[in-house]
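Blackboard transcription, Thursday session:
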Amino acid sequence: MTVLSSPARTQAAPGAEPVRHRRPSVVPYFLIVPAIAVLVLALGYPLVWQFWTSTQKFGLAQQFGKPPQFVGLANYAQLFTDAQTWAVVGRSIAFCLVNAAITVVIGVLVALLMSAVGTVTRLILQIAMLLAWAMPVIASMTVWIWLFDWHRGIVNWALTQVGLDFTNHNWLEQPLSFYFVATVIVVWMSVPFVAFSVYAGLTQISEEIMEAAALDGATPRQRFFAITMPMIRPVLMIVTLLQVIWDLRVFAQIRMLQDAGAPLSSTDLLGTYIYRLGVGSSDFGMASALSIFVLVLTVALSFFYVMHLLKEDS
Amino acid sequence: MSRRRFRPGKFLASVVAILVSLAWVFPVYWMLNSSLLPNAVLTSTTPRFLPFGGSMANFAAVFDQGTFWPALGMSLAITLTTVAFCLLFAFLAALAISRFRFRGRATFVLAVLFIQMLPAEGLFIAQYKLMSSLNLLNSVIGVAILYVAAVVPFTIWMLRGFVAGVPIELEEAAMVDGLSRTQAFFRITFPLLAPGLVASGVYAFLQAWNEFTVALVILQKEEYRTLPLWLRGFVQASANRATDWGQVMAASTLVAVPVIIFFLIVQGRLTSGLVAGAVKG
Amino acid sequence: MKKMLSAAALVTASALALTGCAPAPAASVPPSQSASATPQNITLWVAGGDTPKELREYLATTYKAKTGGTLTIEEQAWGDLVTKLTTALPDANNTPDVVEVGNTQSPTFTNVGAFSDISDLYAELGGDKLLQSFVEVGKVDGKNFTLPYYFGSRYMFYRKDVYKAAGVEVPKTLDEFNATVKTIAEKNPNKIKDFSGFFIGGQDWRNGISWIFANGGDLAKVDGGQWTSTLSDPNSIKGLTQLQEIQKAASRAPKTAKDESPWLYINDSDVITDADKKVTGKTSLAAATIMAPGWAHWSIGDLKDDKRVWNDEKFGVYPLPGNDGKPAPVFAGGSNIGISATSKNQEGARELMKIIFSHEYQQMLGKNGLGPANSDDVSALGTDEFAQALIASASNSKLTPAAPGWAGVEASGKLEEFFAKVADGGDIAALSKEYDALLTPLLNAK
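(Written on the board underneath:)
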């Protein structure tokens, strides 16, 4: 943490030109110390352990005290030459982009709805979103799996009632249909968060500005892109980034859907694949190597985005 | 709000909003409906949409096990600790990066952004070893440390957006009016941050409330189970025998209720006139 | 579970139950010679809710009486057991002292040294009277690390009325069974859409392997410490071919179904009514036969006041028959139990093992419908039809291979995939070769 060790030098640093504070200050360092401390405490050792383990042959025997064998990059080599890895990576990226896009678009639309409708309707919409958001993952997965059950699921029942024969249709059997169900669930779970974050951003926009713009003859569309978008941009960018990060390694939802009876190897995404290598096969060396790879992959996927974010920030 | 004339656009928006509400609330309703019906009805092929002939029997059976209240206590302790520390730490850090320019700022921001890209599924052995060596297994503090670390990076980012969204000119104007910097901050900026704090708080609350992988590994003793572990145990114990869907749904409802109460409390904050008032003033 | 206690079991077990159920009086359980001077407080992990409350209380009181120490019993969910064992067992400060593990999980953990060597206790705890197939999966290099805790077994539940309407009898051999369920599916006497003569999910390998076993095949063999997957062995292929025929002609279960909740399909939902008490429900009956563990019978029966009540007129049970006159070898469910190697309370843990393998406790297991580890106490299961079917099907049951990597094989989901592809009508010869090649390295992984 070079940040902590160099407050004295900041005074001499010409590059760090303070924007608001003409005088360099130690205040910001005090402000970030607690956050850094908790991150280092909670993640420092696990991160180091993960890097180190990814270079070892580390199975259950090693967990029970047998000295691990250093294998260099052998785990990575094995990982990258396995076609299954790339299949999982490809599926995960596709799943992540589709889900993140759908979630953010619907989330923004719902946030706009919230600010467009009257108080009562808005409250109804907000409560509906809150209820969905408040559902514990385990509880909502249980309900959803039940809704899509092949034999007693209400989805099949409803589709059959409107004249399509979906009696005993199995949604989880084919990968595409499995991912469709997974997408419905993930989007349902994620939209409230996006909607509320964006709505919180929208409330910061003062009515005077909007009214002034309207008086000046700006159309709603113009107002949206010229005033609303720039105001909610910071929130929107960060929730988008988060959706990408989360959806790339979506775990609980996929695992529980798999438990409900989907074929594993054609539905595994990165999260469940790491879990299967680690807990399932007790191959912690490989699981760590894959985790590191996922970290690198996420950084790579979001690199330009993060850079853009940083540029905008400064 | 003063104009009362009918606007078709607004009417259409309301209709859409109601439809969206129904779609989103249906699974929740289905959980509630099922929790009131006996298992044998739930396992038939024809759905029953209204809980006629239902009873609180499933809830009674769940409460009879006597394990709900301790788990609720544990969940509340961990979640509130997490939310409090997370908001405090994140708020301070957000102030630092949005109101100050300092050396190492870019590194810090970058680290905060990238740290949450670490997949958690591979970390649990190391986290167990860490907590075991700190003697913090089966403790509120142990889990809370891991939770705060998991949610603080995002919370920093979210709050940074809100702090940056408050024009500094407002503060400066107040200072011109004779307020000190601190006074200006607490009178002007802080109220404007309320929605941001609430949104981040809600986020931290939900993450901590719903998490179960870390809890599973760190809280090994039965009496320290959090609600998700309790519910998971309930679902699994039930699946081992014949799944009693009614009881599982009743248990799920019980886990969701505290969150809904919490939401209803902060709901007012999210929408209060505080915001608009402050901006106008 | 108490309801399972039949009148007959009461008679056989009554004398012992008297001493067993009462809070152990000091006279009947003399303090052990080997108990250490300072009482040890120990922890026992039981898996899932199978061990009833009454038995847990007995263990705690008896342990207290015998050693003066406290026994804490913690229940771990089956689905999370491996995660918890992986983290806690190597940690001397937090390890449970005595642990129940699934019988198929035992080889993986015994092979890495997670359990203490209890060979010296083996004879005292029951010796060769203990269920040998379970003893095997707890053994490494001839030493005992885990021992059987209890066994369960799967047998067939069937609809007497449907069998009768289809004009078929309860089959006496496996070949007859295969033909019978096909006939029922073809005749479909109730004219129900997608009706199964025998409901078996495509991914359901735990029931499906019975056909491999019954034809003399096996999942894997060991030679000089090297395990080889044997799905492509001629006998295995014979069994798989029969299974594929059943999947094609007799079962309408989804290809993705596993072995969960098959009882839903054998029940009628005859009295589903709407708010006005008008019957609106269609029957949910979808199968004439299912294969399930014994406790499934609590979920099978007629719907009375929104509860299932077993009806002898309509429902029956029988063990899956083999072709040699004996019951077919089915997958043996159940658990093993052992002492954590890192436990600091080895003495106390050994005392607890002695209590668990005592005659009294074994009888209590049997009375609660759990197969006792000691063959002397199996009669405690009782004599009703469920106990008979359990004992008969367990008499010839088989376990999955005691390979070090077996837990990894299960976690990989490869068996589910393989059986689903077979059920889907795939080329068995080619598939079994393909999956043998995939499974062999997993079997040997440590």
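Lecturer's comment: Chain A touches chain B through 115 residues (CB under 8 Å).
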